[in-house]
Amino acid sequence: MNGFLGEIGKKLAERWAALLALPGLLFLATAATADTLGWAHALDLARLRARIELWAAEPVLRSVGGAVLTVAAVLAGSVAAGLVAAALGRLLSRLWNLPGRRPPASVLAGVRRRRSRRAKSEADDPAATARQVSGAIARADRVSLVQAERPTWIGDRLHACRVRVEASYGLDLDAAWPRLWLLLPDTARTEILASREAYDASARLMGWALLYLLLTGWWWPAALIAAATGVTAWSRARASAAGFADLVESAVDLYGRELAARLGHSVRDDGPLTVAEGEAITTMTRKSRWDPHSPLAD
């Protein structure tokens, strides 16, 4: 048991260091550089070296107690910065998935909706050549795999997963997913969890980009760091969101019939889930008194 607990503690420490401490230490080092150099001496390495030597000569660092307290303070600061970045990442993840009903999100959603409709109309043009149709379809899919409705590409990509599942199987993915998750084998769960963690990690990275952007007020090179971090985070977020949506949709494709069988709504032993079965699963899993087919309906 002691060995087991020790291994768990080791893994937690490694995860803590990777997610919070190490990125936080890098951020604190950048913040210290920004405070030392400022805009006027942004690239003055000699000034930075002199300040580091001055810090190293501080009497407090010559004692064991002072050194320990300094290290503890730095680690605490790095963890605090990591927690702030993680909180910003969670906030950004929610913003990426806003439905876009109110300004300014509704304005962005309107722009994406018009782009999607324009590309769709070009693809449906009977006078267009095969090459033009192919190009229009590619442009439409780059905007969204279904009619664009959300302010961001990520929001539409995750929304498309729900729309396509409901259109194909009559299944409310939000209501049915917890039951389907319980049926998935470990390999499928591992893949889905890994893709979700990649998405969360990209959101945290965007949180770090915002923190670096704050340092721009003291040190202009921080803007370059923020821009590079933000572009990387957005690229990873798009890729991980697409991968996560593909895996969730694949889980429905592969295990939807098993869910129907477990819930007693399967009328066949093979083939894909039917719309009638999906609608029956939706009614059962929603358990809504507003659904006229539900036993809870008033």
TrEMBL record:
Transmembrane segments: 64-92, 205-228
This protein's UniProt keywords: Membrane, Transmembrane, Transmembrane helix
Top-level taxon in the UniProt lineage: Bacteria
Name of the protein: Vegetative cell wall protein gp1
